[in-house]
């Protein structure tokens, strides 16, 4: 066996200052799909997600709720983890930045940046958004009618902050960062341009410690300071591999990360600060930062005050997990903003899943069960139509792989669904239910061809809908393990394989109170 190539992917780690919402689920599902894809495609994967528990926002939220930041983090971090488990996110580590090994990693990164001459003490005087945990320059702020100052970019309220602080010499890294962006480090392209123009505008040194509260990782050598939460947060990607022990087999194998998957609102932290910290510390840079878009609820931004926040648990209950995963990745071109609505998800469930894929499986496999003794049929000689159908299905593998490698999940799924549409047309045109009487041998060939197309589809779509595709592969007599990997795509169904009794994979969604249409 050839040696596997490592692949390390991460999500952002979420602030556990509240419950997870659909935006968190969206990112976790996308990252999980990517990792499952690489795993099935023969890579040795490592996947990390978790919660970002320090900082002023956590401390302030806890105070408002009359609890401690630690308790707040414990309660909500558990909820994030439950959400991930319910979404079947196949993480290898769920990191909490309050985990025992994390402070050491953050402190070592700090020491290395300091040893490189990039950290100096000064005083910070400027605007800070606790909601964003971000500093804003004067020209990124505006005063609104209420007399308060807000961040123009994010709309969050700002507080004037003046305190002793250590600074990181971010200004030193402008040229190296611009060079990095030319290599495609930030994706998609639009985000890369935004980041590059921000950096071209000139970089200020960055305040990287706080002295007005203490909920954070202590700064080495000066316990009056805690690290700015983003310094410790970004370090999580290293902690999970055993850093600062760079001899740790995980670190050796998986650093640098292949992709940090994040939301577009935090691109600046990942594409400017993080590579600069790593360059300063003399560590390798991740290969890619991919920033996805936002999900809107029928065109509106979801927010607690509007009351249109969607709870992933409720969505799973209503539509089913695989259906939700499929919808999110099929509906929205990954990287762009997208819309969630009940009608859109029901549309996808009933047309793409129930009608197109579900129906194809149902009508072909039930004929196999009824007429061919429930084993994979023995095909006769293939006609031009059979060959064309099989060739089309086999050709989609390369297209799908290219799309998924570029995180263009919607494109990969679109090409698979083109094959499904062709297979439905093929099935209808061949009329195996007529052949049953006129030419049973031909019927067997048509059913074989259809089953083989279904097998290719099911193997490919597993990363998106692991549960439903496992059930379909069960019905195709494909055991768990090697037969379900992408390496098996070239090994056609073996005639004679016994098949279990088929059952529907995708039920239609019926409106609970719907009037019959
Ligand atoms: N907690 C941050 C956020 O939600 C992400 C940190 S990723 C290192 O914006």
Molecular structure report:
With 517 residues, this protein is α/β, with parallel strands linked by helices. It has three domains: 6-113 and 185-292, HUPs (Rossmann fold, 3-Layer(aba) Sandwich); 119-168, no CATH class; 351-498, Isoleucyl-tRNA Synthetase, Domain 1. Helix content is 47%, strand content 15%. It contains 17 helices and 17 strands. The protein has helices spanning 22-40, 56-65, 69-86, 102-115, 174-181, 189-200, 229-239, 249-254, 267-281, 312-319, 321-331, 342-371, 384-405, 409-430, 432-438, 440-461, 466-475; strands spanning 6-14, 44-51, 93-96, 119-129, 134-136, 141-143, 149-151, 159-168, 186-187, 206-207, 209-210, 218-219, 222-227, 259-263, 289-292, 295-297, 338-340. The strands form five sheets. A six-stranded parallel beta sheet has the order 3-2-1-14-15-9, with helices on both faces. Helix 9 (267-281) links the parallel strand 14 and strand 15 (289-292). Helix 13 (384-405) runs parallel beside helix 16 and helix 14 (409-430) packs antiparallel against helix 16. The longest helix has 30 residues, at 342-371. The chain is elongated, with a radius of gyration of 26 Å. The termini are far apart. The mean pLDDT is 96. Bound molecules: methionine. Methionine binds next to strand 1 and helix 7. Its EC number is 6.1.1.10. Is required not only for elongation of protein synthesis but also for the initiation of all mRNA translation through initiator tRNA(fMet) aminoacylation.
């Amino acid at each position: 066996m050839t040696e596997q190539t490592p692949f390390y992917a991460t999500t952002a780690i979420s602030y556990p200052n509240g419950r997870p919402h659909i935006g968190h689920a969206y990112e976790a599902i996308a990252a999980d799909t990517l990792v499952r894809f690489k795993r099935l495609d023969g890579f040795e994967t490592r996947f990390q997600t978790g919660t970002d528990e320090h900082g002023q926002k956590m401390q302030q939220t806890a105070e408002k709720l009359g609890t401690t930041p630690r308790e707040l983090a414990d309660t909500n971090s558990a909820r994030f983890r439950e959400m991930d488990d319910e979404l079947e996110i196949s993480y290898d580590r769920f990191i909490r930045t309050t985990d025992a090994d994390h402070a050491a990693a953050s402190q070592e990164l700090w020491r290395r940046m300091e040893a490189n001459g990039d950290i100096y003490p000064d005083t910070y005087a400027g605007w800070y958004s606790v909601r964003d945990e971000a500093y804003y320059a004067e020209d990124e702020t505006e005063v609104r009618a209420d007399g308060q100052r807000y961040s123009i970019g994010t709309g969050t309220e700002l507080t004037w902050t003046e305190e002793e602080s250590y600074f990181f010499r971010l200004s030193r890294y402008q040229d190296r960062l611009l060079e990095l962006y030319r290599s495609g480090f930030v994706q998609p392209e639009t985000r890369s341009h935004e980041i590059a123009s921000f950096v071209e505008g000139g970089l200020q040194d960055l305040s990287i410690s706080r002295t007005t509260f203490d909920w954070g990782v202590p700064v080495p050598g000066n316990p009056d300071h805690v690290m700015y939460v983003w310094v410790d947060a970004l370090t999580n990607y290293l902690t999970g591999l055993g850093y600062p022990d760079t001899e740790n087999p995980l670190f050796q194998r998986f650093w640098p990360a292949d992709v940090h998957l994040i939301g577009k609102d935090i691109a600046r932290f990942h594409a400017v600060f993080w590579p600069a910290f790593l360059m300063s510390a003399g560590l390798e840079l991740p290969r890619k930062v991919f920033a996805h878009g936002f999900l809107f609820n029928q065109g509106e931004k979801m927010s607690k005050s509007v009351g249109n926040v969607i709870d992933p648990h409720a969505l799973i209950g209503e539509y089913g997990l695989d259906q939700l995963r499929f919808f999110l990745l099929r509906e929205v071109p990954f990287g762009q903003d997208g819309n969630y609505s009940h009608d859109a998800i029901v549309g996808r469930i009933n047309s793409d899943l129930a009608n197109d894929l579900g129906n194809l499986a149902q009508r072909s496999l039930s004929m196999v069960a009824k007429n061919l003794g429930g084993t994979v049929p023995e095909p006769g000689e293939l006609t031009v139509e059979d060959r064309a159908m099989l060739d089309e299905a086999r050709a989609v593998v390369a297209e799908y792989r290219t799309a998924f490698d570029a995180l263009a999940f919607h494109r990969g799924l679109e090409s698979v669904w083109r094959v499904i549409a062709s297979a439905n047309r093929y099935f209808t045109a061949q009329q195996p239910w007529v052949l049953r009487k006129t030419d049973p041998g031909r019927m067997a060939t048509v059913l074989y061809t259809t089953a083989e197309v279904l097998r290719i589809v099911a193997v490919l779509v597993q990363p998106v809908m692991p549960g439903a595709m496992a059930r379909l592969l069960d019905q195709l007599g494909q055991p768990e393990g090697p037969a379900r990997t992408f390496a098996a795509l070239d090994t056609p169904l073996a005639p004679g394989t016994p098949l279990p009794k088929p059952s529907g994979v995708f039920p239609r969604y019926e409106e609970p109170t719907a009037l019959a249409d």
